[in-house]
Each structure stands twice: as structure tokens, then as C-alpha cells.
Amino acid sequence: MAGPALAYFLHRDGYEVTVVERAPDLRDSGYAVDFRGAAFDVLEEMGILSELREHDTRMSGTILIDEEGAEIGRLPAEAFAGELEVPKRELTRILHRITADDVTYVFDDSISALTQHEPGVHGSGVHGSGVTVEFESGATREFDLVFGADGVYSKVRRLAFGPHAEAVRHLGLSGAGFSTANHLGLRRSGMLQHGKDRAIFLLSAGDADRLTVSLSFSTDSPALDRRPRHEQEQAVRAAFAGRGWLVPRLLEAMSEADDFYFSSTCQVHLDRWSSGRVALVGDAGYCAAPTSGMGTSQALIGARTLTRALASAGGDHAAAFAAYEAELRPYVAENQALGQETAATMFGGGGSAPADVHSA
């Protein structure tokens, strides 16, 4: 979300923008994203708030159940859906539509190297200030500024700042997500079974025929994030072995799902969000973890804050990056504290020093 939003604001302010996406086309994956607080001002400024409201999932709440599936309580819709929740594919589609005519999108490619240079550096035949970007496709291009808006395992961050292990902090949770047939008949509602070290969350939102499944469990590191699917499935099966209720059926559906997704609950902590002419936006620079419920809102607010700082600095990128960070850090710190607190409440996690993270 951070990339297209940043592209929108940068183009509006007169920049020529290129967005690089490793997927071969627009991503149609993901389940739902929610918005809270100041993010609504950003959506309004972009002119898409009314359209997004048309896609509101209108969740009615979440039923709390015990290990046998009996209801033991309820949570209001706001607990998971925020003030507004929409299917992620709709937000992706809208952000692409409002930028496609003005921004260059490069799909099915990624960067392989970044080289920053200043006037007078002639090593690669470059005589001005900027960044030489080498692509996996073999192309090489020059840019004035480069922004990493590519998630927790940001390629830009690794190239410009250092290994993932120096930035990514694990909060003690990992899990699989996928969808299956809505055999429970849920309608705009969720169902949560929560134990000491594992949880099952089921919901049906935009598509009444589909059931979104999340199987979470305690882990010591996010190493599984970078492992093959069969190893991830093995870990899920081991974590939920011997459990009754719907668990055997859900585990079977997991192996059949064509939208299987595995991730760990992590945060990104850095001493700085910029390095020369490279800066980070959204999860790449300061992920607050899904347990904060603030990822999408933070990405949008970060994109607008950065572009406002660039406009105010009159072309001085160093001053702009410093102002962007000074303004946004307190907001990010609050969200990261919330993410840690929620993780600790769920499974006794809360994070530790960055460790056990693959650098690939």
C-alpha cells in the first residue's frame, strides 16, 4: 500500500515516478485491510474515501469459542476491522487505477544493486547526483531518489542499510492464512478460538461463499517465513496436532488452498529511515506488526508525511528525510508499542532483540 500511495503524492508534486513490482501483475491476494484515525484524512486527500466506503466489509463482530466450538463471548467489529475495512484487492485496484496513467509501473522485476553517487564521481560514467539502480532483468537506470516501500523483508533496505537480522524483530507468533469453502455459514462475521500458544481465526466478509482461515502459533523466530511451503505446512500441522473441533478439516483445506500464505508477526526497528538518497516508507522502515492493526494506516500516513516534507524542503532531500522521520517517529513508536502489547497478551510474546532472521 505504501508504494502506490507514495507514487500518487510524488507525481502530484511534480516528480516522475517509477514503481517496481516483483509480481508479474497486480496482486490479487490478501484478505482485508482496515483504516483508523488520521488515515481517513489521507484517503480523503487522495479522493478515494467515498469509493472505499462502497467496499466496506461491514463486519458484525467476532464470536469467541472454546476448544469444543461452544460460544463463550463476543468481540465488536472494531476489534479487528477498525473504523473501515475493505478487501485488500479493492484497495490495490483503486490505488493502481488513480496512478496508472501518470506513473511508470515495472512488473515482474526487482532491483539487484544500488549505487549512490554525488557530483564528480565517474566510476560508472555518472557525472551527477543520484542513484544507479541495477535490475534483476539486467537493465540499469539512474534515479534522483529511491524509496523502499517493499515490506518487512525489504530488498531496498537490505541493499542500502544492511541484513534483515539487524532490523527485523520477531514478536513470537507465526501462522498460515488461506481460504476455503464457507461450510460454517458465517456472514460478515468472525469466529476466534484462542489458546495459550495457538489461535484459530475464521471469518467471512466480502465473499459469502469463502471462509478466510488464520492458524497462528508461538514460534521462536521468523525463520519459517523464508522456507518452502511444505515446511511451513509441516510446522502448522505440528502446532495443531491432536486438536479437535474443526482442526483436522482446516488442516486438510490448508493443503488444498491455492492462496496459502505464511508469515510471522514482526516489527522493523531502525536507528534511521534514510541513507543518503534512499529512504524507507511503511513496513520496510517501521513495521508495527499485524497485531497493532495499524499497518495500512501507517503506510498511508507515512507516504503523505514524506512527500510533504520533500515539498517543504525545496529539493533538499537530506532535510526532508530528517523532517519526515522527526514528525512520524512518535506515531510509529505508539503503534509499535501497541503491536508488542497485543502480541504479549495473545501468546506471551512481545519481541526481543533482532535475531534469527534470514538475510536473503
Automatic annotation (TrEMBL):
Cross-referenced Pfam families: FAD_binding_3
Domain FAD-binding: 2-332
Gene3D superfamilies (UniProt xref): D-Amino Acid Oxidase, subunit A, domain 2, FAD/NAD(P)-binding domain
Origin: domain of life: Bacteria
Identification of the protein by name: FAD-dependent oxidoreductase
Organism: Microbispora siamensis
